[in-house]
Amino acid sequence: MKLLKDILYGVSLSAVSGDTNVLVNQIHFDSRKVEMDDVFVAVRGTITDGHEYIQKAVESGAKAIVCEELPELLINGVTYIKVSDCNSALAIMAANFFDNPSKNLKLVGVTGTNGKTTVTTLLYNLFKKAGYKVGLISTIKVMVDDTDHPTSHTTPDVITINTYLSQMNQIGVEFCFMEVSSHGIHQKRAEGLHFAGAIFTNLSHDHLDYHKTFAEYRDTKKRLFDGLPKSAFALVNIDDKNGLVMLQNTKAKKYTYALKSYADYRAQILEKQFNGQLLKLDDNELWSKLIGDFNAYNLLAIYATADILGLEKMETLRLMSELENVDGRFQYYISKDKITAIVDYAHTPDALKNVLVTINALRTGNENVITVVGCGGDRDKSKRPVMGHIASEMSNQAIFTSDNPRTESPEAIIADMEAGVEAQNTKKVLSIENRRQAIRTACKLAMTNDIILVAGKGHETYQETNGVRVDFDDFKEVKEALDSQN
Ligand SMILES: CC(=O)N[C@H]1[C@@H](OP(=O)(O)OP(=O)(O)OC[C@H]2O[C@@H](n3ccc(=O)[nH]c3=O)[C@H](O)[C@@H]2O)O[C@H](CO)[C@@H](O)[C@@H]1O[C@H](C)C(=O)N[C@@H](C)C(=O)N[C@H](CCC(=O)O)C(=O)O
Ligand SMILES: Nc1ncnc2c1ncn2[C@@H]1O[C@H](COP(=O)(O)OP(=O)(O)OP(=O)(O)O)[C@@H](O)[C@H]1O
Ligand SMILES: N[C@H](CCC[C@H](N)C(=O)O)C(=O)O
Ligand SMILES: [Mg+2]
Description:
Blueprint: E1 2-3, H1 4-7, E2 13-17, E3 23-24, E4 27-28, E5 39-41, H2 54-59, E6 64-67, E7 79-83, H3 86-97, E8 106-111, H4 116-129, E9 134-137, E10 142-144, E11 147-149, H5 158-170, E12 175-179, H6 182-186, E13 197-200, H7 208-211, H8 214-226, E14 233-237, H9 243-247, E15 253-258, E16 265-273, E17 276-281, E18 284-288, H10 293-308, H11 313-320, E19 331-334, E20 340-344, H12 349-362, E21 369-373, H13 383-394, E22 397-400, H14 410-418, E23 429-431, H15 435-445, E24 451-455, E25 462-465, E26 468-471, H16 474-484
Parallel strand pairs: 4-5, 5-6, 6-7, 8-12, 8-13, 9-12, 13-14, 14-15, 15-16, 20-24, 21-22, 21-24, 22-23
Antiparallel strand pairs: 1-3, 2-7, 9-10, 10-11, 16-17, 17-18, 19-20, 25-26
Helix pairs in contact: 4-10, 10-11, 12-13, 13-14, 15-16
The protein binds ligand UAG, adenosine-5'-triphosphate (ATP), 2,6-diaminopimelic acid and magnesium ion.
Magnesium ion binds at residues 116-117, 138-139, 154, 179.
Binding site for UDP-N-acetyl-alpha-D-muramoyl-L-alanyl-D-glutamate: 31, 154-155, 181, 187, 189
Pathway: Cell wall biogenesis; peptidoglycan biosynthesis
Cofactor: Mg(2+)
């Protein structure tokens, strides 16, 4: 148990009713989890408002309530704290509750539209290979050194983050690499954390349903850099025009990386093959198994980070040459008939374009590229026609299908994608709502040497429709379909 006043240290309080010198158990922002002597923080959400559940939390035994508006009826024996921003208060309280675990390790946040999972995972793998105890908080999983935990968000809520950071402290983890999504920054899931550094990968179209304008989306990402302390580093990709924007108001030490511009860290692609690429980094050569220009950026970002964090350059390059693709990122399988299937998590227009550019650059003859792709339901609708256009323009055959329709109609999502297809490409498009059938059709259409891209779900092992998740794994599906054709 902890003293409420200790948990509230650093939170600016507008009003207090009751005693803060009381012992409390846990902090919760979901009334359904509240038990005897817990603290409930009322967060205003996108669907409902935590303030509506204050009474519920008290009935479940809450000893203290943190809210932006005090309820009319105050119950004796319960402490009510009024704050101006519950998300911020929650972030500070969660960090205090776990004794600020982010201060006891080097926490590096990675933000950007694409590449967060790749960069954080590669950094985790690199630092593990270098012999450190390492933590990872990513879309795919959370790693507390060697122990993995499933996750539901790219950036979990602040209580979950601090719980894992605290576990990392207990076993002596020195570095933790964490994805920081724009939703996470906006909902202050990364506030109250002490970052040793932050990395910006790139910015392109995504989540405009949530952030409304591109400028708001960009400024949300920038907040991660605005909040860095002087002791931290800020590393940005300046080939992206928003790279320098991220650095505008940061107190941190600034570093840049680029393939095309002058920068502190530079790389050049010397050779591209299907099984890897040769890069020149700081006058040294690196053979990497990861392909695509976008991966050259990711590799450069991790090389720069390792250098800034004090790893020896030559040793870093040696270990980097051993790094493998991250699950569901350009993961490929070549069938007995010499058909290549690539599963990639490209779920934004930019990512889809990059992957198709990479695939097209690797074609040696007149092999066909068949793309199976869908767009998520209850997510940014404006990216659908753009992705429909890219898939149809850059492939010989595009098959539009479902990708986590959630509460939307799969036909309607596909229709939104079809709306972006230009007249000359319509004959290249097939729409098959059932993802398994879509993948099987692609495999049937493919001939020797053809390339099938299954985009959008990458490492995901489910398809979500109306709140129900059914097992579904793109890699398994496409492999099975190709193997059964022989
Ligand atoms: C749109 C969004 O981000 N929603 C997140 C948000 O939920 P919300 O705003 O909908 O919450 P709400 O349902 O309105 O409830 C408001 C408050 O009332 C509370 N409540 C509610 C009901 C009740 O009975 N009692 C109660 O106390 C809730 O616990 C909540 O605190 O806060 C929740 C708790 O932290 C998150 O789980 C939830 O993520 C949802 C599930 C989600 O899908 N988020 C996605 C969009 C997301 O965050 N994605 C990013 C990655 C994006 C990227 O690609 O960059 C991520 O970081 O994962
Ligand atoms: N640096 C990059 N620039 C552009 N595209 C990239 C980059 N790195 C990866 N991609 C593409 O974007 C896809 C998603 O990559 P990754 O999972 O690393 O991104 P993310 O930022 O973690 O995404 P999310 O927002 O879903 O967490 C990859 O499958 C690949 O197609
Ligand atoms: N982090 C992204 C992942 C999208 C992946 C795609 N398969 C989908 O479900 O839309 C999001 O939550 O928007
Ligand atoms: Mg990710």
